[in-house]
Amino acid sequence: MIVSAQKAAVLIQSGHVVALPTETVYGLAADASNVLAVRKIFELKRRPADNPLIVHVADVAQISAFSDVSSDILTRLIERFWPGPLTLVLPKKPSVLDIITAGLDTVALRMPDHTKTLSVVRRAGPVAAPSANRSGRPSPTRPEHVSDDFGKDLPVVDGGSCSIGLESTVLDISGEDPTILRPGKISAEEIEDLLGRKILSESSSSEQNKRSPGTRYSHYKPHAEVQWKKSLPLSSHQTNCLYIYHTQNPDSDSDNIICFNGNFEGLARSLYDLYRTADKKKYKKIIIEPLPDTSFSSLIPAIFNRIERSVSQ
Ligand code: TXA
Ligand code: MG
C-alpha cells in the first residue's frame, strides 16, 4: 500500500513498520526507540536475531541518542559523505536497544540521501531499518519488490527506483583502524583520500575476526544458478538462461542478454532487479561476465561482493 511521507511518519510513531526508499535500496523501518516495533521487523523479515540493524538519522543531532563519540574522523566522514551511502559503526550508548545492536557494543548509523525518507525521519525520529526484503531474497530497489516479498498491505513510501541499487558501504570506526565491513558505492580509496590513512577491509582479515554479523549469513541465491562466465561462444546462448555482460555483445537485442557497455553504475542499479526477474521468468542459470579490475569503476568491489555471494559453489 503506497503511503505519503507524512502518513508514514504517523504510522512509525504509532509503532508500525513502513518501507522507505533510500538511494541504495528500500529499507523496512520502525521507530528505533520502540522495542516492540523493531521486533516486528525481525518477524516480518524472518531475520536471525543476531544480525543487527542500521539506525537511520535525518540530522547530525539525532546521533547523540545512540553514540556519544566525537572524533575528528567522524566529523570529516559525516561532512563529506552524509547524507549518502556510508554507514558508520560507532561505540554505542548503553541506552540503545539490544534488539537493534544484537547485543554488540557498537551501533551502525547512516543518513540516507533521499528527500522523502529524510522528511519521515525528521518527523518520526530515528528509525532502525534493514533492507526491505525477506531474508534470503535480493534487496528491493523498487516499491514492487517490497510488495512482492511482504504483500500489498505493507505501507510503502514510493520513491521510484533506487539510484545506486546496492547497499551502503559499512565502515567500522569503533576500533583503532577504520575497517570496511561491507563494500559499497563509497570506496576504500575515497575514504583513504579523505582521512589520509590506510583503510582495512574485512575480507582481508581472518574469518574469526568477522565483525559484521550480516556477512556470516549466506546471501541471496536465486533459484537460477549464478555463474561467472568462463568462456562461452556466442552460439551457445540459451533461451532459458540470463546473460549479463558489462561489455558489448552483438546478441544484446534478446530479452535474456543484457549488456551494460561499461556502465557499471547501470549494472549496480539493475543487478537485484535482474535477479528478481530471472526468478519470475524461471531461468535456469544467470551467467555473468567476469568483472575487470577496479580501475574501470570504484563500484567494482561492491558489485563483485554481491555477485560472488550469490554464485553457486
Ligand atoms: O544501504 C543500506 O545500508 C540499506 C538501506 C536500507 O539503508 N540497509 C541495509 O541493511 O543494507 P541490512 O540490515 O540489510 O544490512 C546491514 C548490515 C548487516 O550486514 C549487519 O550485520 C551490519 O550492517 N551491521 C549492523 N549493525 C552493525 C554493527 N553494530 N556492527 C557491525 N555490523 C553491523
Ligand atoms: Mg539486507
Topology:
Elements: H1 5-13, E1 18-20, E2 27-31, H2 35-45, E3 54-56, H3 72-81, E4 86-91, H4 98-101, E5 106-110, H5 115-124, E6 127-128, H6 143-150, E7 169-172, E8 179-182, H7 188-195, E9 200-201, E10 225-228, E11 241-245, E12 257-259, H8 264-280, E13 285-288, H9 300-308
Parallel strand pairs: 3-5, 4-7, 8-9, 10-13, 11-12, 11-13
Antiparallel strand pairs: 1-2, 2-6, 3-6, 4-5, 7-8
Helix pairs in contact: 1-5
The structure holds threonylcarbamoyladenylate and magnesium ion (MG).
What would you note in describing this structure?
Helix 7 links the parallel strand 8 and strand 9. About 25% of the residues lie in helices and about 15% in strands. It has helices at about 5-15, 35-45, 70-80, 100, 115-125, 145-150, 190-195, 265-280, 300-310; strands at about 20, 25-30, 55, 85-90, 105-110, 125-130, 170, 180, 200, 225-230, 240-245, 255-260, 285-290. A 9-stranded mixed sheet has the order 1-2-6-3-5-4-7-8-9, with helices on both faces. It has a 4-stranded parallel sheet with strand order 10-13-11-12, with no helix packed on it. By secondary structure, it is an alpha/beta fold. The protein has 2 domains: about 5-210, DHBP synthase (Alpha-Beta Complex), CATH 3.90.870; about 225-310, no CATH class. The two termini are about 40 Å apart. The mean pLDDT is about 95. The chain has 9 helices and 13 strands. It binds threonylcarbamoyladenylate and magnesium ion (MG). Magnesium ion binds next to loops.
